[in-house]
Amino acid sequence: MNTILQDTQKHEAQKLDAQKAAAHVGLLSDTIIVNGGRPLRGRIDVRGAKNLVTKAMVASLLGDTKSVLRDVPDISDVHVVSRLLEIHGVEITGSPESGILVFDPANVAIAQSAEIDALSGSSRIPILFCGPLLHRLGHAFIPDLGGCRIGDRPIDFHLDALRAFGAVVDKLPSGINITAPNGLTGANIELPYPSVGATEQVLLTGVRAKGITELKNAAIEPEIMDLIAVLQKMGAIISIEPNRVILIEGVDSLKGYDHRALFDRNEAASWASAALATKGDIFCVGAKQQEMMTFLNVFRKIGGAFDIEEDGIRFYHPGGDLKPVVIETDVHPGFMTDWQQPLIVALTQAVGTSIVHETVYEDRFGFTEALVEMGADIEVHKNGLEGGYRRVPRRALEQAAVITGPTKLHGADIEVPDLRGGFSHLIAALTAQGQSRVSNVGLISRGYGDFAGKLQKLGADFSFAA
Ligand code: EPU
């Protein structure tokens, strides 16, 4: 297929995803008009982490009894995973709006592949259904996977891990058919890279596999630790060993859980960046220091200020010039790849040249084109940049962005490309002088609960386009 056609198809798929996501959470329109240049000030609530909640929802499939999940955010990804669970026979009560969901897995059943397919366009979570469905039904089907359009996002680690447990993987034109004719058995697995999703795959599969699973080079993100806490409540035996090793002793059965989700550190970091970029002051109720230490260090180095309180963290611009930084994104405990996009908007206001090395994904600076259109000075180096002190070893797929500031941003018509890039567009529009029209904002609701309500609370001047 030629690249222009591919780009057009990607673009259309993106628009459709954005519209579906907007509909899930009841946004008035998929486009907002922002009058920028006003500091964001006020208090907002940060609920459970998208990247834990959606996985804990999948874990409910493994239980023999009901599970209760608290602090669920009202985001479109939660609606999609709810629908995916429902088509697999899980009965769900409660609502994302109320923050509590109850899952009853008594009647788990095989879903129609067309139904899975219809939902999967906007989520990568179906891949994590494999282990639980193989244990319960001996069969799983994975359609073409969606999620943010940030590079190819392969699933080879997932499939290799499932094969190591004894699953048989058949690639068909419509998707991937996975069976476990002889059940699943504990395995020794070493990940080529500490992938979050592949670690979750091994956890969700290993807990009910026969015998012991040893996972080397595992991801140890706080959301993974919280998923392990969920699984332990269900009856699993999982130990965290030194040097990224996780040991799982398979058990015969698991029960449901009752769990309050870890707060969303990506959401808190995003609002913190918004406070800095707009010279504002935002208190994130529910944010905690431990999971944000790496972010807080960088925030302080740039010249941002924060107060850690009992019930949350206050992030603010204390006055004076912001300073440039050099950041390498990395797996935990490094600087998260999901933090760089909103922070880059604040870096356009720093005095001097900052460098962000993106080492986790292969294509995560597409969003900077819109910032440049708005007046930012950002140069993207597709093959990364050599030289300088490095904490994270250089990776073949990495890219770098060089941001020189301070630059005045002005309003523009911009189109949200993905979840985190989208939030950064929103912050840029709020920072810029003049009016911006931001379309595809539905994509932002994939991971930011009630973002419009929160903007209102923070005094932003915006309206939904008719
Ligand atoms: N990778 C492979 N093969 C695989 C799996 C991953 O090569 O089979 C590579 C990826 O291409 C990437 C790297 O490994 O270069 C890391 O990917 P990882 O598997 O860790 O990412 P993920 O599980 O797909 C989750 C979050 C992302 C977050 C990353 C890194 C969810 C639903 N998504 O993705 O969140 O950026 O971990 O922390 O948990 C977001 O919230 O906006 C988002 C993209």
TrEMBL record:
GO terms for molecular function: UDP-N-acetylglucosamine 1-carboxyvinyltransferase activity. Phosphoenolpyruvate binds at residues 50-51. The active site is at 148 (proton donor). It is found in: Cytoplasm. Its EC number is 2.5.1.7. GO terms for biological process: cell division; cell wall organization; peptidoglycan biosynthetic process; regulation of cell shape; UDP-N-acetylgalactosamine biosynthetic process. One of its GO terms (cellular component) is cytoplasm. It catalyses: phosphoenolpyruvate + UDP-N-acetyl-alpha-D-glucosamine = UDP-N-acetyl-3-O-(1-carboxyvinyl)-alpha-D-glucosamine + phosphate. The modification 2-(S-cysteinyl)pyruvic acid O-phosphothioketal is found at residue 148. SUPFAM superfamilies: EPT/RTPC-like. Pathway: Cell wall biogenesis; peptidoglycan biosynthesis. Residues 35-455 form the Enolpyruvate transferase domain. CDD domains: UdpNAET. UDP-N-acetyl-alpha-D-glucosamine binds at residues 124, 338, 360. Keywords: Cell cycle, Cell division, Cell shape, Cell wall biogenesis/degradation, Cytoplasm, Peptidoglycan synthesis, Pyruvate, Transferase. Its main location: cytoplasm. Belongs to the EPSP synthase family. MurA subfamily. Cell wall formation. Adds enolpyruvyl to UDP-N-acetylglucosamine. HAMAP family: MurA (MF_00111). This is UDP-N-acetylglucosamine 1-carboxyvinyltransferase. It comes from Subtercola vilae. The lineage of its organism: Bacteria, Bacillati, Actinomycetota, Actinomycetes, Micrococcales.
